[in-house]
């Protein structure tokens, strides 16, 4: 059985290379096809992952869940998502992304339906934990696909554009979940995204492709004449599990640095995604729809800046850490603004949410790209999964930690914890100031 599954997920085999005329005609079309399908696919993944937070307060009221219960659900999901991202990353590096990503989206749809039908805390805890695990099948195949179809000198700009899938999916889900819950009940915050995910799964299976060689095209390095530094001639050889995990990740000091930074960046990012709507409802007078729109504002705030900063990082010879540091500093002052803004000025809170979104998403994207810069393209999923694992641990820490601080002390104390995390991220990013993939 396991052997059958492995064979079904195995990378698509190479086929004889097409003529030069066909290569020049087909390569741009397939590059767009890969970018477009992974973009839409990952956007849909977000609809079935971040739909809990916008309605968590309403679920708590309907089912008598405390903040601690809600925090536990957020925490276990973050843990399983991190584990899933790492494990699924190593599997995706040796799998066909078309099948791998489509199956993951199908499974998360089923788990969303199940969550909506359930009404018991322990069942919800298990289902959302399982959802976190299969959500790990989303990003790694995207990284593998883009790493094979776009060269080193294109990565900052290409991944910057692709990364706004986070913002679009993360922004839309707040509106979809809150409106569905307001119209039909909290269960529909999971039913509606689940239906969308089923269609998305079918689309990925039809549209996405594997490597250029599986379509009769040369490797991207040959097509673009853009070879990574210190790249061996056997750069197309698939790596063993030991090479993927030990050599390319665990013994790579740069991957460790980016991973630890990502821990604190994810505390910053998810503090407002997971708790922002609840915070605004409890302290600033926002309603259900207002809480949902705060997520939309946060996510959409990062669209333009992510593209711009990705391009800037390419222009500065791949100095992703430098650009990330310059983005994190203004976030510290935006959090102070939210903390000091009195109730009754919700518009100011929305503006500050947008400002944080403007500056947090470039580092979220650039840390992943930096991981790619310092590892083989055959280990992209594993490296991204490892960095993502630390990010998920950061989300776990804030999901549980902020719940405890807000319940036992106050939201002000919780915000001071976020400010400390922001300062630590700034200090760590100083050490990445001069790091670049070429030089």
UniProtKB/TrEMBL annotation:
Residues 34-439 form the Major facilitator superfamily (MFS) profile domain. It is a multi-pass membrane protein. It is found in: Endomembrane system. Gene3D superfamilies: MFS general substrate transporter like domains (1.20.1250.20). Keywords: Membrane, Transmembrane, Transmembrane helix. The keyword RNA-binding does not apply. It holds the Pfam family MFS_1. The chain crosses the membrane at residues 100-123, 186-206, 254-272, 292-311, 323-340, 346-367, 379-398, 413-435. The keyword Transmembrane applies. Belongs to the major facilitator superfamily. Organophosphate:Pi antiporter (OPA) (TC 2.A.1.4) family. This is MFS transporter.
């Amino acid at each position: 059985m396991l052997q059958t599954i492995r064979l079904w997920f195995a990378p698509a085999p190479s086929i004889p290379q097409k003529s030069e005329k066909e290569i020049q005609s087909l390569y741009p079309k397939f590059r767009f096809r890969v970018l477009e399908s992974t973009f839409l696919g990952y956007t849909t993944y977000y609809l079935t992952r971040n739909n809990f937070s916008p309605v968590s307060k309403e679920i708590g009221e309907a089912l008598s869940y405390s903040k601690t219960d809600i925090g536990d659900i957020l925490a276990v999901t973050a843990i399983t998502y991190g584990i899933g991202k790492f494990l699924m990353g190593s599997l995706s590096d040796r799998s066909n992304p078309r099948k791998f990503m489509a199956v993951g989206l199908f499974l998360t749809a089923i788990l969303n339906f199940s969550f909506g039908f359930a009404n018991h805390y322990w069942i919800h805890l298990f289902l959302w934990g399982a959802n976190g695990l299969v959500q790990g099948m989303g990003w790694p195949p995207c990284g593998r696909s883009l790493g094979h179809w776009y060269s080193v000198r294109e990565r900052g700009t290409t991944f910057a554009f692709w990364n706004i899938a986070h913002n679009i999916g993360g922004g839309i889900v707040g509106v979809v979940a809150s409106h569905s819950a307001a119209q039909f009940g909290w269960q529909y915050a999971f039913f509606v995204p689940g239906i969308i995910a089923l269609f998305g799964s079918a689309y990925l299976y039809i549209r996405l492709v594997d490597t250029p060689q599986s379509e009769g095209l040369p490797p991207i390095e040959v097509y673009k004449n853009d070879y990574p530094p210190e790249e061996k001639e056997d750069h197309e050889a698939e790596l063993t599990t030991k090479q993927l995990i030990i050599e390319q990740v665990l013994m790579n000091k740069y991957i460790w640095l980016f991973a630890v930074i990502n821990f604190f960046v994810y505390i910053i990012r998810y503090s407002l995604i997971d708790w922002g709507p609840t915070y605004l409802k409890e302290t600033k007078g926002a309603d259900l729809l207002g809480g949902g729109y705060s997520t939309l504002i946060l996510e959409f705030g990062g669209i333009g800046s992510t593209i711009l900063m990705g391009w800037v990082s390419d222009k500065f010879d791949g100095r992703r850490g430098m650009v990330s540091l310059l983005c994190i500093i203004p976030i510290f002052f935006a959090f102070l603004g939210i903390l000091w803004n009195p109730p009754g000025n919700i518009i100011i809170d929305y503006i500050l949410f947008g400002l944080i979104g403007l500056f947090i998403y470039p580092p979220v994207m650039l840390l992943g790209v930096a991981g790619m810069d310092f590892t083989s393209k055959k280990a992209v999923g594993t490296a991204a999964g490892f960095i993502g694992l630390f990010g998920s641990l950061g989300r776990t820490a804030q999901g549980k930690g902020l719940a405890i601080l807000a319940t036992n002390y106050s939201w002000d104390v919780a915000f001071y914890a976020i400010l400390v995390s922001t300062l630590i991220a700034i200090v760590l990013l100083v050490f990445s100031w001069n790091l670049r993939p070429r030089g």
